[in-house]
Design goal:
By secondary structure, the chain is mainly beta. The protein has one domain. About 10% of the residues lie in helices and about 45% in strands. The chain is built from one helix and twelve strands. Strands 1, 2, 5, 6, 9, 10, 11 and 12 form an eight-stranded antiparallel sheet that branches. The protein has a four-stranded antiparallel sheet with strand order 3-4-7-8, with no helix packed on it. A hairpin with a 6-residue loop joins strand 9 and strand 10. The longest helix is centred in the first third of the chain and has 15 residues. The radius of gyration is 14 Å and the shape is globular.
Length: about 120
């Protein structure tokens, strides 16, 4: 049963990956976008763990903004904890819509819904 779950998760994460179309944002030049998101408590989306801390505005694409985690995220797996680069994605259409993102070999993968997490925008 665990093997089936692991294969399903691997297919899900690889299927959600795409070309990385992000480009850097100059946080000092933006006045309408928060420079940071403070995640006030640890949260998880599936097997991906997002630690509390100050996530920094790093890049954007035409859909939203990407805030980099202060430390590596980690993914729980059979072999233990695997470190991952990633952070929090905020939609441009609805800034209350937060998702996690992870950098995978195939590109950026959006994971989970973090809208209910304990967070604050910091300008």
């Amino acid at each position: 049963m665990r093997v089936i779950q692991a294969v399903a998760l691997a297919l899900l994460l690889s299927g959600c990956g795409g070309t990385d179309r992000r480009h850097p944002v100059n946080p000092a030049a933006t006045v309408t976008v928060a420079r940071f998101i403070a995640l006030l408590s640890d949260t998880s989306a599936g097997t991906i763990h997002f630690p509390r801390g100050l996530y920094s505005l790093e890049s954007e694409d035409h859909h939203g903004y990407y805030y980099r985690a202060p430390v590596k995220l980690y993914q729980r797996s059979f072999g233990g904890r695997e470190p991952r680069d990633g952070g929090i994605f905020v939609s441009k259409q609805n800034q209350r819509k937060l998702r996690g993102y992870v950098i995978m070999p195939g590109g950026v993968t959006h994971v989970g819904n973090l809208s209910g997490a304990n967070y604050q925008f910091r300008y």
